[in-house]
Amino acid sequence: MAVWEAASVHQPVLLAEVIHWLAPKAGGVYADGNLGLGGHAAAVLEQSGPDGRLLGFDWDQQALELARQRLAVYGRRAILLRRNFTELEASLAELAIDHIDGLLLDLGISSLQLDGSPTVSVQQHPDTGPSGDRARLKYTGYEAPGCLPESAALLNAYGPLNRQVVAHGEQLRPTAAGRGFSFRRDEPLDMRMDNRGATTAADLLAQKSAAELADIFYYYGEERQARRIAARLVEARQQAPITTTARLAELVAAAVPRRFHPSKIHVATRVFQALRIAVNRELENLETILAMAPPLLKTGGRFCVISFHSLEDRLVKRAFAADPRLRVLTSKPVLPGPAELAANPRARSAKLRVAERLPTTTSEQDRLGQGKRSGAGRRGQEKKAGGGRLARSEGGAS
Ligand SMILES: C[S@@+](CC[C@H](N)C(=O)[O-])C[C@H]1O[C@@H](n2cnc3c(N)ncnc32)[C@H](O)[C@@H]1O
After folding, report:
1. Ligand 1: which atom is nearest the Cα of residue 32?
2. Domain boundary, last residue among 251, 282, 313
3. How far apart are CA 191 and CA 177, in angstroms?
């Protein structure tokens, strides 16, 4: 029987550092707001064995399905939800969990989402003939008899592989269509991590005014040519709607005079980042969880956040520093070491910040007591205590 091995498609960033700072222990309850393929989550469950529990969130159905399969070995210790991580508090209440020992956020998108489909390195077991196995993989699609569990998970998640020719040792690109996160391939401009969301990147490009688009590019992409680009896009959409990554990248390149093209990144990089952030309301969601999480942590509980660009990192740094319920443990962000940087290009811009929940103050305890007596929710009480400075996002994904 053939044996197919899938190379890991998403390497968890700063894994050793996360485990060091989160310090999972037996019996603990942890939350992972960005399950992705469950790499960090698996390590947390390993470290907190035999009975630590993990509540994992991902709003992307494909990611959640892969994480579910990967974490199945942990049985009921892993509780996985297709929800926005901003629903952490409500989810804990539903599960009758009062406080957690740690929360991890690994923000942004996974390589799975960025690439549109995973690259799976397929190794064929030496005792099988190539054509037979090709046929089996091709026609059985989902089942792929003989797959290792991880391969099966990937194949299952990406559907029938009937457009692929697979040969021994070749890179296999399953057929799931990309969502337009990158300009490197021509794809529809969707950019929703959660396909239940109402608005795609193409919708934003069709509906927003030039001024609104310029604001998106400037604030979420730190793009200095924002106005110029927005004006060009608004002009171009009168001819035909902008619905593909290739067209958008071309229009951006044409809008920016050659001398202003950045030397190290593609000229459209910042516009793509900005649209993705806007479509997924990434900064609003981050603000919401930064305000929501501190009171949900036990005393000494750790809040670890990995961010990938300065807009996120700034929010994390400021929220940690301003929250009287937290003690910052990392005065400077923790960065990946040279070995990780060499092995995983995605780690390049990663920054980890960690804060610890301080003991509950007497006045806080009083307020909590009153809250319980009056039947008011804990969040309402604690928001008044300093957590309510940021609005709750409307970008619910559940
Ligand atoms: C960088 S990946 C996480 C990778 C993961 N730590 C691992 O080890 O595989 C980020 C994931 O978070 C998810 N995500 C982003 N924002 C989210 C949100 N507000 N709520 C739930 N999931 C979110 C994305 O769908 C994506 O799968």
Report:
1. 6
2. 282
3. 12
My answer on whether 330 and 247 are in the same domain is no
Q: Is residue 195 part of a domain?
A: no
- Based on the number of CB atoms within 10 Å of its own CB, is 245 exposed (0-12), middle (13-18) or buried (19 or more)? buried
Give residue 137's pLDDT: 37
Shared domain check, 216 and 121: no
Task: Take residue 229 and report the two structure tokens written for it.
Answer: 């680009």
The count of structural domains within the chain is 3
Residue 189 in any domain: the answer is no
Residue 106 has pLDDT above 80, yes or no: yes
- Does any domain span residue 181? no
Neighbours of 311 (CB within 10 A): 18
Q: Report the pocket of ligand 1 as residue ranges, CB < 6 Å.
A: 10, 12, 34, 36-40, 57-60, 63, 84-85, 106, 108-110, 193, 285, 397
Q: Which atom of ligand 1 is nearest to the CA of 40?
A: 8
Query: Predicted confidence band at 140 (pLDDT cuts at 50, 70, 90)?
Result: very low
CA of 109 to the centre of ligand 1 (A): 6
Q: For residue range 253-283, list pLDDT tens digits in order.
A: 999 999 999 998 999 999 999 999 999 999 9
Closest C-alpha to ligand 1, atom 22: 58
- To the nearest whole number, what is the mean pLDDT of the chain? 80
pLDDT at 210 over 50: yes
287 Cβ contact list (under 8 Å, min separation 6): 315, 319, 390, 391, 393
User: Distance from the CA of 32 to the center of ligand 1, in angstroms?
Assistant: 9
Q: How far is the CA of 2 from the centre of ligand 1 (A)?
A: 33
Between the CA of 300 and the centroid of ligand 1 the distance, in Å, is 25
Q: Give DSSP secondary structure letters for 208-238.
A: S-HHHHHHIIIIIH--TTHHHHHHHHHHHHH
Q: How far is the CA of 10 from the centre of ligand 1 (A)?
A: 11
Q: Tell me, yes or no, whether 243 lies in a domain.
A: yes
Which residue's C-alpha comes closest to atom 4 of ligand 1? Answer: 36
Find the domain containing 167 and state its range.
Answer: 117-174
Q: Which residue's CA is minimally distant from atom 18 of ligand 1? A: 84
Which of 282, 311, 341 lies at the terminal end of a domain, its last residue?
A: 282
Looking at the structure, tell me whether residues 7 and 106 fall in a common domain.
yes
pTM of the model: 0.80
Work out the average pLDDT over 36-43.
95
The C-alpha R_g of the chain, in whole angstroms, comes to 23
Q: Give pLDDT tens digits for 290-299.
A: 999 999 999 9
Using the structure block, give the residue that is written with the tokens 């457009």.
Answer: 163
